[in-house]
Amino acid sequence: MIRVVLPYHLKNLAAVDDEVTVAVIGEVTRDSVLDALESLYPMLRGTIRDHQSKQRRPYIRFFACQQDWSFRPGDEALPAEVAEGREPFLIVGAIVGG
Amino acid sequence: MKVRVLVGTRKGAFILTSDEARQQWDVSGPHFAGWEIYHIKGSAADTNRIYVSQSSGWFGQIIQRSDDGGASWYQPGTPAGEQVDAEQGMPQGESNKFVYDISEQTGKPLATHQSHDGSQHPWEFKRVWHLEPSPSDPDIVYAGVEDAALFVSRDGGQNWQELAALRDCSGSQWSPGAGGMCLHSILLDEDNPQRIFVAISAAGVFRTDDGGQSWKPINRGLVSNYIPDPEAEVGHCVHSIARHRAQPDVLFMQKHWDVMRSDNAGDLWQEVSGNLPSDFGFPIEVHAHEPETIYVIPIKSDSLHYPPDGKLRVYRSRTGGESWCALTNGLPQKNCYVNVLRDAMAVDSMPSCGIYFGTTGGQVYASADSGDSWHAIVRDLPAVLSVEVQTLP
pLDDT (tens digit, 9 = 90+) per residue, B292-331? Predict the structure, then answer.
């Protein structure tokens, strides 16, 4: 299972308290994790990435294993630590959004 | 004795004056009508000297100065007779020049900082957020600007020099808060001119002990769960800091979330939010005569920029934090959804300490009894950006 940490406001939207876990079939990439996340929590569709283009929304950042994944390709494999559930995939909201 | 309350708003400055009782007020303004007045502050060394940060998306940044307590104004550096009104265009003075120091001798390269989306963005001057006059010399004044940097003028606002070493403190990791990437708080040490504290949103607090030649981040103990590394050396969204002259090493902080204090000049912080209904907020102030009495105005959250439960409450701690009581007498306790911005609270130094704050709804509230009771001096100004106060002989 993949561990995902949402920013505060999206936790409220999804009605979750802490990190969530999602199952990914196939390669664990940013896009596949987000697909699984949005499938489990449909209310998050359009908040993290654009409905149509799937582009990251500007006030959202992605981090994995202390690395900024915001500008990496969406189909790039995430680190093994994330794929194996040892480290969470962080979705972070920009401070400027508050 | 008298008090002079200096109010900066989205559409001009206002000066509110009263006698020691602080019940009847004279209101003058708007000064610089139509301009954003991010900050207006008087000199403690010469109470007739007042500095104003006047900015506009059309005309840029101007520094205004008064040498007669706000009766008249001019832009330092402007030759006599050349002052022009806003409607006529940009004033012809030199005081609007804030140029980052990139010289080989004293400067630092103009690099990039983080934008809100994580990309790197070039440093660009936007406006002056805060003016801090020297406590001992009316011609020395510091300016905190956006994009974050610290400038100083030693000739009454005519020429400005950046203290560029600050930008070298992991500047590439700084990012903007909701208001922009601003240096908004400057604390000068009356007894040690070499020591300066500044706070930047969203970077954190920095200290120099050599007059600005070198700086270090002092953010240990801050925990910000909304950034990738909650205990990062820089990147914290500090909203304001305050201290009392009698306890020079004790600092208080209102962070994005959390009210904090440090007992060692910022080397280590601890949370003192205690029983506050929300530890989100913007300003923090220290009582003029009681170094452990502090004030905050809780705001519900970073998305709901209004008071919890629609009740405008100032919270006072007489124990330097942790234990807080609500001050509500005279403040609206229902249907109140204004915000109080980071520079919009101040204290006077009357024998009975006065507290003042302004709201985004245009009210300026005053208390002449350390916060026990409040009244509105004015109710219908433009959104208030800053409140400062001078205690006059």
Answer: 999 999 999 988 999 999 999 999 999 999 999 999 999 9
Percentage above 90 pLDDT, chain B? 85
Check if CATH label 3.10.20.30 holds for domain A2-97.
Answer: yes
Burial A5-44 (b: 16+ CB within 10 A, else e): bbbebbbeebeeeeebebebeeebbbebbbbbbbeebeeb
CA distance B16 to A73: 57
Domain assignment present for B338: yes
Total number of domains in chain B: 1
> Which pLDDT score, from 0 to 100, does residue B316 have?
98
Predicted-complex ipTM score:
0.77
Q: Is A59 on the interface with B (CB under 8 A)?
A: yes
CATH assignment at residue B368? 2.130.10.10
Question: A50-62: string of b/e by CB count within 10 Å (b at 16+)?
Answer: eeeeeebeebbbb
Q: Is residue A80 very low, low, confident or very high in pLDDT (cuts 50, 70, 90)?
A: very high
Residue whose C-alpha is closest to residue A39's, from A14, A59, A60: A14
Nearest by CB to B228, which of A9, A56, A63? A63
pLDDT of residue B325: 98
Chain B residues touching residue A7 (CB < 8 angstroms): 226
Owning domain of residue B339? 83-131+150-380
| pLDDT on residue B110 | 87
Scanning B173-202 for CB atoms below 8 A from A yields: 175-178, 201-202
Which positions ≥6 away from A57 have C-beta within 8 Å? Answer: A47, A48, A49, A50
Q: Judge whether B358 lies within some domain.
A: yes
Closest Cβ–Cβ partner in A56, A68, A96 for B176: A96
pLDDT at B96 over 90: no
What residue segments make up the domains of chain A, in order of their start? 2-97
In a domain, B66, yes or no: no
Percentage of chain A lying above the pLDDT 90 cut:
82
Find the Cα–Cα–Cα–Cα dihedral B39, B45, B50, B52, rounded to 10°. -30
What is residue B59's predicted lDDT score, i.e. its pLDDT? 77
Concatenating the DSSP letter of every residue in B16-73 gives: EEEETT--S-EEEEEETTTSEEEEEEE-SS-TT-EEEEEEETTTEEEEEEESSTTSS-
User: Hey, what are A84's tokens?
Assistant: 């194996």
Q: Please check whether residue B58 lies inside any domain of the structure.
A: no
